[in-house]
Amino acid sequence: MATARKTSLAIILVAGAIVSHALFLRANKRTVKPLPAVIPAAVIRASDLGLHTMTASFLWLAVIQRLVPIGFDRLDAYIGQINDIDPKFSYPYAFGVLLLSGQNNLDAGTRIGMRGIAEADTDWRIPYYLAMNYHTATKDRAHAAFYFALAARTRGAPENVRMVAATYGSRKTYRAETEEIWSALLETSRDEVVRGQARDILTRLKILDLLEQAASAYKKQHGLFPKQAEDLISGRILTTLPIDPFGSHFVFDKDGNAATIRP
Amino acid sequence: MRTIWAIAANTFRAAMRDRILHGIAAFAILFILFTLFLGSISLGEELIIIRSIGLGGIYLFGLLITLFLGGSLMHAEIERRTIYLILAKPVSIGQIIAGKFFGLLVSIALVVTAMGTVYLGVVWYQGGGFDGIAIPTIGMTILELALFIALTIFFSTFLTPLGATIYAIILLYIGHSLSLLIQFVRTSGAFARTAATAVSYLFPNLEKFNIRNEVLHHIIPSSATLGFALLYALCYTALLLALATFMLSSKDL
Questions:
Q1: To the nearest whole percent, how much of chain A has pLDDT over 90?
Q2: How high is the ipTM of this complex?
Q3: In terms of CA atoms, which chain A residue is nearest residue B51?
Q4: Measuring CA to CA, which residue among B67, B69, B74 is closest to residue B247?
Q5: How many CA atoms lie within 13 A of B240 on its CB side?
Q6: In terms of pLDDT, which residue wins out, A146 or A26?
Q7: What distance in Å separates the CA atoms of residue A213 and residue A256, rounded to the nearest whole number?
Q8: b vs e for A17-46, b when ≥16 Cβ sit within 10 Å of the residue's Cβ?
Q9: Is residue B185 a contact partner of residue B123, using CB atoms and an 8 Å limit?
């Protein structure tokens, strides 16, 4: 009898712990978690028993698992923290260059990239991503060519990266060059975040090509290029509009060239 | 020598039977296998993550085992009065200390080697081939743990197990922070610089055994660096064991 009572009590307590935990998780989902504090790297280095590479690795995992899904707030600070703890850990530099420029934080991305080239282990991705920034964001082709060449000369650079560097500036259009650069990245990267970004950009470039073809067809019918993408629907050129992976709207200039604008 | 060997063998057998060692070793091996999962969520940086966390884990778990087993090594013998049985025979306190040290060192070295083997297997499985450079890294870890064993044995001759563990942990942090201290006082006055230098020579400088960060970034330490680290470990360990012998001899047993 006493054993049965004890067993029942144990079952009730276990059930109580499980139920309260489930309720806690449900309640906790709704609360906004604050971002972790950026502890000065000097403090971390003084207290990690010399395990700087291990600490930097754990911080890297924390950044990409926690920060990237919820947003890129203070990404430059977290990347900087990892760089300060283990200056030779190369991929955070490359990752920071690419993602910060995507966040319109080009200066921070460039700064991180320059530091990575100076301090990190030899890694072709850092100059390559810097070159992409110069090509895409600032249209600074001279710097882009310089960093593509640097990436191509770096030990371990894949063949298609060397091809990009060798043929940079020889493509007919800016968009064709951009497509080649991002295709090389998609083929060589094993980073799902970067590959996702490359796929989205290549999708956008294909959409822009499609819209320009549609705009030419619109002009043949109506004598004028469309002003915005919706005109292609009302003009019965397209039945549906493709959706930009980045959520931007499509517009046309007077020559029928398609471009994107943020809503 | 035969006496030291007999005490060492006995200490080794006792350590190998210790459930704490089994538990920590099992957990350490699970942790090293877990790095495969951590590598899979690292956005393509699997080998760096596995190697850095794997080698770091080997060091941390080796330290944990040393703290648990070494902290109570001599204290347990004194409290249980088993030391008197040994001293009744023609065995000196120095031989007891040396035997205990070697017995514990061999058992910890064996566990660290087992962890190292699992680590090499994990790196090979992940496509990193044979990570040969990890072998001298693990060797330096064992050297550092040898010095740490001597430290815990020294403390355990006159402190309780908890006290020995706390002091050992404090010296562990000091030992890894000495180079930062020297950097910090570089722009300070002459007195601060002299004091910091004296402290860095007096306390065990454990950073010299830490070649993990360099090795993970393909920087191979020179033979001179490794040789001097070995000499330092031998001298400091011998000094600590001599001090432990002195402390135990002066005790009213």
A1: 46
A2: 0.87
A3: A54
A4: B74
A5: 23
A6: A146
A7: 9
A8: eeeeeeeeeeeeeeeeeeeeeeeebeebbe
A9: no
Minimum CA–CA partner of B216 in chain A: A53
The overall average pLDDT reported for chain B is 90
Q: Are B38 and B50 in contact (CB under 8 A)?
A: yes
Q: Does A129 touch chain B (CB under 8 A)?
A: no
| pLDDT for residue A261 | 83
The answer to whether residue A93 neighbours chain B at the CB level (below 8 Å) is: no
Residue for token digits 């990190």? A120
- Which pLDDT belongs to residue A229? 84
Please report residues of A whose CB lies closer than 8 A to that of B38.
57, 61
Spatial neighbors of A67 by CB under 8 A, at least 6 apart, are A35, A73, A74, A75, A78
- pLDDT tens by residue, B164-217: 899 999 999 999 988 888 888 888 888 888 888 888 888 999 999 999 999 999
Q: Do A51 and B60 touch (CB under 8 A)?
A: yes
Cα separation, A239 vs A152, whole angstroms: 44
Q: What Rg, from alpha-carbon coordinates, does chain A have? A: 25
